[in-house]
Write a structure and sequence with these properties.
The chain is of the alpha/beta class. The protein contains 14 helices and 19 strands. Strand 16, helix 13 and strand 17 form a beta-alpha-beta unit. The structure holds flavin mononucleotide (FMN). The site of flavin mononucleotide has 15 residues, from helix 5.
Length: 420
């Protein structure tokens, strides 16, 4: 279950509770699960545990001040909120809950919570009387009604010597619930096939033709699809990435190998997402030995590789197909042409190259325009994991409608139009 936390950006807020020391264990476990963690501490929290502890455990500087010119330039409250895939406040003090309820933004943690549009969870920890007080209970009701997730608190003995409800939940329990946040169930029971990364087309035993694709976008989509409940098979060209958890990863090298592997998987597929940057051409005759350098120019003859996405749509029209169009210019118009030519359901248009690094190949960020025959949605520049989840949300929304329409038109073809 905790594997859902892999590659997630978690902002952990720590407030002034006696249980603040337990947040150190939360950071450690988040890192073990593969999350990247940025800790935001309130001033009161620093009285209980030093920022140094969290800096060492998270491997990142700890964020303390809202009105700090330097920190704001580097990773201000807005950037932190944008960076996060989820915000967890553990422990959450009674005072912090009251501020959150009021929508205040006069300290860094409150401001980050207000600026974030990602899942926000609080794990309260306080004296049992403070917890049961009407003021706290009203704050909790208000927070719940705004969709803020509540983890705990637990019943039991307390640091103050009393017994009752108010103890911080155990770190493992908190993280298990946090991992749940990333499971949408939107693709439950569906089988998703993906291609990712570049292909390598050999010239001779030591040289090849390839491209700059890192595979990061495809791997992030594979993970997002698995988290949405799909059974995912990822056919990957050579990349320097670890296979995503809960995903069957099949490595290939050339475009022909990728094509054959895809074809073998088609009968087990409902949705095909082609993110791989497949080489359009391969060397017609691969030299059996290393080609020796001479003073004469060298000419390589190239043959066209199969169009994997186009072939899949032709061979298996019942599969919902998503393609990627990586372009350096005229990105959306070219994506629209590809959408029509290949007859697929969606093309994600992807700007690559250019001086202002808008994302694309090898970057950790990306922006996409999702083109379907009926619509065009732009996903603003964000970490690839976030873009991947948004893309999966769009696919999950449009897939059932597409299937229904396909079934209806198949029926009209078989039986003719029903009488009005
Ligand atoms: C020793 C000590 C322990 C405390 N433990 C808690 C606690 O567990 N929960 C809580 O809500 N407040 C606790 N407080 C009170 C908070 O630290 C205080 O309300 C503070 O303003 C919270 O600030 P913050 O929400 O900005 O972190 C404690 C105070 C002291 C002195």
């Amino acid at each position: 279950m905790l594997e859902r936390l892999a590659n997630k950006h978690i902002v952990l807020g720590v407030t002034g509770s006696i249980a603040a020391y337990k947040a150190a264990d939360i950071v450690r476990r988040l890192r073990e699960a593969g999350s990247e963690v940025r800790v935001v501490m309130t001033r009161a929290a620093t009285e209980f545990v030093t920022p140094m502890t969290f800096q060492a455990l998270s491997g990142n500087p700890v964020h303390l001040h809202l009105l700090d010119a330097q920190a704001e330039a580097a990773m201000g409250h807005i950037s932190l909120a944008r960076w996060a895939d989820a915000i967890l406040v553990a422990p959450a003090s009674a005072d912090f809950l009251a501020r959150l309820r009021q929508g205040r933004a006069d300290d860094l943690l409150s401001a980050v919570c207000l600026a974030g549009d990602v899942p926000l969870a609080v794990a309260p920890a306080m004296n049992q009387r403070m917890w049961s007080d009407r003021a706290t209970q009203e704050n909790i009701q208000g927070l719940k009604s705004r969709g803020i997730l509540l983890f705990g608190p637990e019943d039991g003995s307390q640091a103050c010597g009393e017994t009752g409800v108010g103890r911080l939940q155990e770190p493992l329990q908190i993280l298990t619930q946090l991992a749940e946040v990333f499971s949408s169930g939107a693709l439950d029971g569906l089988r998703v096939l993906l291609t990712a990364g570049p292909t390598r087309e050999p010239i001779d035993p030591v040289r090849y033709i390839s491209n700059h694709s890192s595979g990061k976008m495809g791997y992030a989509i594979a993970q997002a699809a698995a988290e949405a409940g799909a059974r995912v098979t990822l056919i990957s060209g050579p990349v320097a990435l670890s296979p995503p958890p809960s995903v069957l990863t099949l490595p290939v090298v050339t475009a022909l190998q990728m094509f054959e592997c895809v074809v073998q998987q088609l009968k087990h597929t409902d949705i095909f997402i082609a993110t791989a940057a497949v080489a359009d051409y391969r060397v017609t005759e691969v030299a059996p030995q290393k080609i020796k350098k001479t003073s004469a120019p060298l000419t390589l003859q190239l043959s066209l590789n199969p169009d994997i996405l186009g072939q899949v749509k032709q061979q298996a029209p019942h599969i919902y197909c998503v393609g990627f169009a990586a372009e350096t210019e005229q990105v959306v118009p070219r994506a629209r042409i590809k959408l029509q030519q290949k007859g697929v359901e969606m093309i994600a248009a992807n700007q690559v190259g250019g001086e202002n690094n808008l994302g694309g190949f090898s970057s950790d960020n990306n922006s996409l325009t999702l083109c379907t025959p009926e619509s065009e949605v732009t996903l603003a520049l964000a970490p690839k994991a976030k873009i991947a989840r948004e893309l999966i949300t769009h696919v999950a929304r449009s897939y059932p409608l597409w299937r229904q329409t396909r079934k209806a038109s198949a029926q009209i073809l078989r039986f003719g139009k029903p009488p009005l």
